[in-house]
Amino acid sequence: MKEPLIYELGSPGRNGVGMPDPDVPLTRIPTDLVREELDLPEVDELTVVRHFQRLSQLNHNIEKDFYPLGSCTMKYNPKLNEDMARLPGFAHIHPLQDPDTIQGALEVMFDVQEWLAELGGFAGVSLQPAAGAHGEFAGILMMRKYHLDRGDTKRTKMLIPDSAHGTNPASTSMSGLAVIEIPSDERGNVDLNMLKEHCDDTVVGLMITNPNTLGLFEEHMLEVVEAVHACGGLVYGDGANFNALMGVVRPGDLGFDVMHYNLHKTFSTPHGGGGPGSGPVGVSERLVPFLPGPIVAIIEEGEDDDDLPTYGLIMPEKSIGRMKAFHGQFGMHVRALSYMLAYGGEGLRKVSEMAVLNANYVRVRLRDVYHVPFDRINMHEFVAEGRFSDAPDIHALDIAKRLMDYGFHPPTNYFPLIVHEALMIEPTETESKETLDAFADAMIQIAQEAREQPDLLHGAPHVTPIGRLDEVLAAKQLVLCCRPIPEWAEG
Amino acid sequence: MSYLPHTSHDIEQMLDAIGVKGVEDLFPDVPASARFPNLELPPGLSQMEVAWKMEELAEANLPGAKTAMFLGAGAYNHYSPPVVNHTILRGEFLTAYTPYQPEVSQGTLQAMFEYQSMICALTGMEVANASHYDGATSLAEAAILALNTRSGRTKLVMSPGVNPMYRDVVRTYTQGMGLTITGDESSSVDVSRLIDLLDENTAMVTVQYPNFFGEIEDFSELVSAAHALKILVCVVTDPIALGLLKPPGQLGADIVTGEGQGLGIPMSFGGPYLGFFATREQFVRKMAGRLVGETRDVNGQPGFVLTLATREQHIRRERATSNICTNQGLMALAATVYMSAMGKHGLRKVAELCWHKAHYAAAEIDKVNGFTVSMHLPFFKEFVVQCPIPVEEINAFLLDEHGIVGGYDLGQDYSDRENQMLVAVTETNSQDEIDAFVEALTEVTE
After folding, report:
1. How far, in Å, CA of B340 to CA of A50, rounded?
2. Do A94 and B64 touch (CB under 8 A)?
3. Fewest CB within a 10 Å sphere: which of A146, A396, B55, B340?
4. CB atoms < 10 A from the CB of B16, how many?
């Protein structure tokens, strides 16, 4: 039963939410300014509610069941955080209000900056970037500007491992730098020798994800950092996998110069079907002046211990500039702070420990049935191959689709690119052992089906609201909009 | 503790299965010198205590939206009907991931398809993406599209009437590209001055509609001049204004961007907001951002998928149209619910209320001794007031003595606009509030 488009519901002249008539004297509206037609739905409110409720029920979501997407960290999104973000003192403040009237908001941001700096081992943090990719872009711009500021104009290349998330090279290109790909070795680390070969004075730095997209902590992390620093380059850490590291190790202590955090991964802010996220960046001392701004600082200390300091927004002296309007995804900062306060420093370490424990447990339950190419202690995620030598027609895609019939969301497919038929599995720490066992049992069952009843996999999913969708057709016959194209747009 | 389900028995069983003695043995590759640092962070709190602490911080703020508020400049105190908030609170939408597995994500996908359709309808354009971070970054992505489409050209022209923060963001984004960015050195929005700057090296010209000062400019000549030189025209706009005004698509825009916060999204101290982006069909493959397309499943049933993913970072990597991955999905959903719930008639009504109330306020303020409102162009929702003393002083007085949040100090961004206040009036400002504001201003010159 397909849910109609909202435009197909309703009737001409039907009204939804009403607004009052003007309570002020009217001012004539010049007719030449006014649009002839406003093509929006005409539905009553109950129909709107039913429509979106029925649509919502077509979605898998964390509150329904397990969602082991590698690198996405689909942990529980606390209800408490949603309530806190909706407090009127947070939700109903304008970003440009007099600083005296928003000191609580500035304190929230300052506290989040401090917590992230302490967790990451960094000297300064900016909360402005709106998502991980945005934070990466900011990080690269900072690295570039750092060198230019020193009078070094030769550096135009960024070293990036072949296992990197696509946003890494994409962000690099946006900054006007060239991407140099560094291969991985047979143990899943960055190939240290190849890295050293490429380290010279034309290199801006290295972008590295640690633990990497195989879920493995780089075995030569300190040597990698040393090699890059030795040639005058900087080290950027993609913090997407920070859920494995809190209280375990601080990237700043390992020599990282800059790192972005994903509040919508590690710090539990909800994914929302594709955002909003938040991608703050932390930097070492030498990059602090280059942070994107504005950032929050104490502009006047309190008079004594009982007196609160005065917070303000400042622009770092050599800032790369503003990355978006206003201050950042403040609603996500509120959620992240609520999350961090609930756990405290020790609790956040336990989060990482349990995330790593859960991932290793799932790996050992599956390792005899699914080939795990790098079968060593992993961190918060691991990668298995979704293929069987004795069932060559079965691909990772088929396994993924069949998992849906068991009520689970599939793991990440076909990433990282360096593993064939990759299935990247990240359970997160908020899953109980029973859920992990149920998932492992389903995966084992599917492996058996692959040999005995392969059609079950090829034809999967069978019990979802819709069957496998034709993505080729979607790209060939592009239909991106359901409304008639206006006359003036044609030709 | 908090949201962790593990009992010590669970942990013991799992460690056993893995084959290690203790949890600390799970981190053999972490350099011993850096392992398990001592963090200077407080201990955890119960949910009850977290709420107390956060409420204390919230109460240290004045919720401007709950006072008489006349501050705009890119973020607005518009009404959000409750159905919006209730919909985005549903766990099925809130906690879902990006719809990469379409069979279990039809809710998100269809909602985004409806969003794209409504943005096209609102802006008068052919295709829209599923969102950017905000109005500013949406404009920056438009610049990148223009530079990729008109490759070889290295110049961007921007009107000073475009939001100053947006122009800053365009400069930040393009700092590594060796571009010439011009047009906003002077604060005059005179179209002929911009036309003079256009040449064959210009990839894109950007104007705002209504502009940052609330004015509705006629840029038809600019469009003709730009198109004659194959320059792309980008119009930054306001979605509430489009409830009333002619859509930019009808006026010749090649790209339309803007801030969707007014569509039911709370002001929330600046974020999360919603960047919308719409353009012509011919540019769809160079467009950044997620796109949802219609298709069929194996049984012939219609459904939706993310499409043209080859533009995106996860496929194209360094040759992607942009690096954007996570966008503002839930905010796009909020806007879709708003536009559905308000609908054709509601949005028009909201826009008319803004029109009438802003014009009333402008006329009344102009009568106050020492204050002048002289808008030479038609205006929507915002207007400029020439004040007798610095805006900062007036706003302090309004706040301290009357609990009113005054308008934006334009002198901060435009050196020739000292003592000019940008006043915003929306459907949420009652006549009583406006009259009280005017009354308070009369006290300024006393």
Report:
1. 12
2. yes
3. B55
4. 12
CB-CB contact of B103 with B91 (8 Å): no
As a whole number of angstroms, the distance between CA B175 and CA B185 comes to 18
CA–CA dist A368, A298 (Å, integer): 56
d(CA A394, CA B381): 60
Q: Which among B1, B27, B85 is the nearest to A347, CB-wise?
A: B1
Within an 8 Å CB–CB cutoff, is residue B400 touching chain A? no
Start-to-end Cα distance in chain A = 38
Those residues whose C-beta lies under 8 Å from the C-beta of residue B311, and which sit 6 or more positions away, are: B285, B286, B287, B288, B320, B321
Cis peptide upstream of residue A461 (ω within 30 degrees of 0): yes
Residues of chain A numbered 36-75 and touching chain B (CB < 8 Å): 38-43, 45, 48-49, 51-53, 55-64, 67, 69, 72, 74-75
Among B169, B172, B122, B160, smallest CA distance to B277 is for B122
Contact A418, A162 (CB under 8 A): yes
Instruction: Compute CA distances B214 → A76, A463, B128, B392, B440, whole Å.
Output: 43, 53, 25, 20, 23
Please tell me the predicted confidence (pLDDT) of residue B321: 66
B38 exposure class (CB count in 10 Å sphere: 0-12, 13-18, 19+): exposed
d(CA A185, CA B332): 42
Q: Which residue of B has its CA nearest to A53?
A: B87
Cis before residue B210, ω within 30 degrees of 0?
yes
Q: Is the ipTM of this complex over 0.90?
A: yes
Give per-residue pLDDT as tens, A130-176: 999 999 999 999 999 999 999 999 999 999 998 888 888 888 988 88
Q: From chain A, pick out residues whose CB is under 8 angstroms from the CB of B118.
A: 40-41
- How does strand B155-158 pair with strand B180-182? parallel
Interface check for B123 against chain A (CB to CB < 8 A): the answer is: no
Q: Give me the residue from A275, A345, A467 closest to B298, CB to CB.
A: A467
| Confidence band, pLDDT 50/70/90 cuts, at residue B66 | confident
The answer to whether the Cβ–Cβ distance between A15 and B345 falls below 8 Å is: yes
Residue count (chain B): 446
Query: Do A176 and B176 make contact, defined as CB atoms within 8 angstroms?
Result: yes
In eight-state DSSP terms, residue A95 is: T
Q: How is residue A147 written in tokens? A: 């060198």
Question: Does pLDDT of B255 surpass 70?
Answer: yes
DSSP H or E segment with residue B308 = none
CB contact under 8 A, A84 and B50: yes
Q: Which residue has the tokens 């390792």?
A: A367
| Residue B79 burial (CB count, 10 A) | 18
Residues of A within 8 A of B318 (CB-CB) are: 169-170, 172-173, 179
Provide the residue count of chain A: 491
CA distance B122 to B240: 9
Q: Is the pTM of this model over 0.90?
A: yes
Looking at residue B176, its pLDDT comes to 87
CA distance B438 to chain A (A): 14
| Token pair recorded at residue B167 | 């122009």
Contacts (Cβ under 8 Å, ≥6 apart) of B12: none
Q: How far is B31 from chain A (nearest CA, A)?
A: 8
Would you list the DSSP string of B404-425? EE--EEGGGT-TT-TTEEEEE-
Which residues, numbered 307 to 326 in chain A, qualify as contacts with chain B under a Cβ-Cβ cut-off of 8 Å?
A: 320-326
Under an 8 A CB cutoff, do B133 and A134 touch? Answer: yes
Beta strands in A210-361 (DSSP E): 234-239, 258-261, 281-283, 295-300, 310-314
Mutual angle of helices A132-149 and A167-174, in 10-degree steps: 40
> In B, which residues are within 8 Å of A137 by CB distance?
173, 323
Location of structure tokens 């198109």: B227
